[in-house]
UniProtKB/TrEMBL annotation:
Identification of the protein by name: Ig-like domain-containing protein
Gene Ontology terms for molecular function: axon guidance receptor activity
Signal sequence coordinates: 1-17
Record flagged with keyword Disulfide bond: yes
Domain Ig-like: 18-107, 215-306
Organism superkingdom: Eukaryota
SMART domains documented for this protein: IG, IGc2
Coiled-coil zones: none
InterPro entries documented for this protein: Cell_Adh-Cytoskel_Orgn, Ig-like_dom, Ig-like_dom_sf, Ig-like_fold, Ig_sub, Ig_sub2
Lineage: Eukaryota, Metazoa, Spiralia, Lophotrochozoa, Mollusca
Length: 337
């Protein structure tokens, strides 16, 4: 999989009396195919004020304007530039201005990234994730700064091996992360971090590589008992990456969050789901199933739980048998009426 990443460097020059802001602020990284959105915001008492842009000749972007009035009579005027799918021609300087001395500009630098995502498989011996990064100009040079899983830095050890190679005077860096004896809970985004050093500035790039895992539902209890008039709660615990959507069915009927006496909830993360059936009725007895599906894997596993509904006034009858030697103690038999 190949990506082109764009690093945005912001600079501001403004002598206008009204406030001017630009978003994004600071340095950001975007990959080929991602959405680029730059918003230039003016605060003015003139509604008809229209900011204009100077953009690279090769850029393929769209522009639109928004205006809203504040309570004190000021207008918030936004001019927005969007590229829904970044291309190499989008690199260059973007200038939002209003008059000769009131402008904000953005410079886009390009680097080339090649990423290797991996899909988790049962009983894998190892996982190899990689990110190859190269500059597309003669000025910038690359420095590898390490791998992270979420916010946690990864170091060489019993499970992780990191191999890095730098070539062409820092113009190309290959970084590999090897995970030994992976488990499904290892799935997620891993980040290979780089510094890009230019003569007058140092930028950063975070290369996201995914270890994907198809949804698996941990085995719930096969049945639960619910009392008429109370709330029955079913839980569905799912491990997967990317994010999984969990849906519930009763027999063949889809259960929606806004249905009468039905509500959804989440716990311990986005994948896990709770189904609440409020004010349980006798007709709620039956089989309930949770289905898990994410955007990568078409297979949709499911697990089923049966609900047995009983009245709060149900009596429990017990028979007690005293055991004679050589046995000791008693046996207790119970059943619901």
């Amino acid at each position: 999989m190949q990506h082109i990443a764009f690093i945005i460097l912001l600079s501001f020059t403004s002598t206008h009396l009204e406030k001017v802001t630009l978003e994004p602020s600071g340095n950001i990284v975007l990959s080929l195919g991602e959405k680029l959105e730059i918003t230039c915001t003016f605060y003015s008492r003139i509604y008809a004020l229209i900011p204009s842009w100077h953009i690279p000749k090769t850029a393929n972007v769209s522009m639109f304007r928004q205006a809203n009035q504040l309570a004190d009579g000021l207008y918030i005027i936004k001019s927005i530039v969007i590229s829904t799918s970044l291309q190499l021609g989008d690199a260059g300087k973007y200038m939002c201005h209003m008059g000769n001395n009131n402008h904000v500009d953005v410079t886009v630098f390009a680097v080339f990234a090649e990423k290797k995502n991996v899909t988790f498989e049962w009983k894998m011996k190892r996982v190899d994730l990689s990110c190859n990064l190269s500059t597309l100009d003669n000025e910038g040079s690359l420095i590898f700064n390490g791998w992270h899983y979420g916010s946690y830095p990864l170091t060489e050890g019993s499970r992780y091996t990191i191999v890095t190679m730098t070539r062409f005077a820092g113009k190309l860096v290959t970084s590999n992360l090897v995970i030994g004896s992976p488990i499904r809970n290892d799935s997620g985004f891993y980040t290979s971090e780089f510094a890009i050093v230019y003569p007058h500035t140092t930028l950063s790039y975070r290369c996201l590589v995914a270890l994907e895992a198809s949804p698996i539902i941990l085995i719930p209890p096969r049945s639960i008992a619910a009392t008429i008039g109370h709330t029955a709660t079913l839980t569905c615990i799912v491990i997967s990456f990317p994010k999984t959507v969990v849906t519930w069915k009763s027999d063949s009927l889809n259960l929606t969050n806004d249905a009468f006496r039905i509500s959804y909830g989440h716990f311990g993360g986005h994948n896990n789901s709770i189904l609440n059936i409020n004010d349980v009725q006798e007709s709620d007895s039956g089989m309930y199933s949770c289905f898990a599906k994410n955007e990568v894997f078409r297979h949709r596993p499911h697990r089923s739980i049966r609900i047995y509904v009983k009245s709060e006034a149900t009596l429990s009858r017990s028979l007690c048998f005293i055991l004679s030697p050589p046995f000791s103690g008693f046996l207790l038999f119970s059943r619901f009426l």
